[in-house]
Amino acid sequence: MSNYYTFLVMLFACLFNQAIAQSDTLRLNLTEVVAMAKEKSIAAKQAATLKETRYWEWMTYRSNYQPQLSLKGTLPGYSKSSIAVQQPDGTIDFRQVRNNNSSLDLSFSQQITQTGGTIFGTTSLQRFDDFDRNTTIYNGVPYGIGYAQPLFQFNTLKWDRRIAPLKYNESQQAYIESMEQISINASNYFFELLLAQVDLQIAETNRRNTAAIQQIANTKFEMGKVSKNEILQLQLEALKAEKAVGIAKRDMEVATYNLKSYTGLQSSDQIRLSLPAASIAMKVVAEKALAEAFQNRSDAIAFGRRLEEARRDVAKAKGDNGLNASLNAKLGFSKSGRNISSVYQSPKDQQLLELTLEIPILDWGRQKSRKKTALANQQFTQYSVEQDKQNFTQKIITEVNLFEMMKDQIALNAKAEQIASEKYLIAKERYVLGNLSITDLSIAFQENDQAKRDYINSLRDFWAAYYQLRYLSLYDFEKNEKIKI
């Protein structure tokens, strides 16, 4: 009975330890790791912050086309000083003055996109107090309206209206690309840890198998059926297996840290990863991927934006020709009086019309050089965009082909892994029976291990191609819809 109770205690302890081990293990698959990275990683937070920055830049741009209302004033404008006063005989006399000169001005302005001019209106009131003479006088502009128009100059507003929306759309798509890039990075960290875990499993299995074969070989050695050299070879294999376990544990610790660090996972539990699926139910056609990429990618939007910026630079070089001309017109009413009410009673009209000019006579070819430089840069930009379009197209076509190739590679590596595993089992049995050398057994070991790693690497390449396709096209081929966030 005592042996029976001892057995129950040992069984309970084993089950308890297994339960504890399971409770301390966090099981994750590839989809969960990617989702975690998109939600918690520093990269995701940086992408969201950059998106918000671009949004407020867009709002700043839009405000430039809205009416602006401002209030400015000097309250109070007290001054006490000595000033020079010229006397009738031409001499200068310094006199003490003490006054207050306060003003308040309310104005609005609206820029006109088509012309680059500005329409504005204003109303103002000014009060002057002479404390030495105990007098007060008011001056005001009940209302006035005017228009300022630069002539023959570069219109910044018109070109900003063309380019700024492209920049904003580009930033929106760039945010989606950033999230897809996070998927690619998270997938890489996932497979680094998965491969490390597989390496550890392989190493531990090899250590156990080597130990078992070593016991059989020792028995055969005592019977004189194997040589001392074979025993030494097995001892060397045992040391190599022990070393491989240590290296695999180290690599797994590093890979675990990298995965947790990137995804923002704070748990101290051990991570156990599940093998991802070896296939996805979707069909990718190069023409569809290309069409979606040119509609969705920030690079595609940037092609048009870069060409517009080059045209803008040419227009600016032509507009900034040294001829500065401006037409200013203003209509309004003004009046002064001893009290505020008198300022607004029968005010007198005021008018302003002026044309200012500044014409360069000799610039030593400066303007011509600027224009030629801008035109050359525009030509270079056109060639550069054309080359980038070709590279963009080729990259997507190549990635589609790689994705299809990876499907076949997974099937081939799965078959190779199965064959290598069967060959290893046969080799191990033949060695036990004594009709296989230790060298051939070692080769079977290595081929089996490599086949397992090749299969994991083919899975890694397949999913890397999958996420790369999403990144390059911003299109979900599984759901047949654009990727939106």
From TrEMBL:
The subcellular location is: Cell outer membrane
User: What is any one of the record's Gene Ontology cellular component terms?
Assistant: cell outer membrane
Instruction: Provide the primary localization.
Output: membrane
According to the lineage, what is the superkingdom?
Answer: Bacteria
Q: Which Pfam families match?
A: OEP
Enumerate the UniProt keywords alphabetically: Cell outer membrane, Membrane, Signal, Transmembrane, Transmembrane beta strand, Transport
> Which InterPro entries does its entry note?
OMP_efflux, TolC-like
Where in the sequence is the signal peptide annotated? 1-21
Drop me one GO molecular function for this one.
Answer: efflux transmembrane transporter activity
Q: Which family does it belong to?
A: Belongs to the outer membrane factor (OMF) (TC 1.B.17) family.
Name recorded for this polypeptide: Outer membrane protein TolC
Per the UniProt entry, what species is this protein from, by scientific name? Answer: Pedobacter caeni
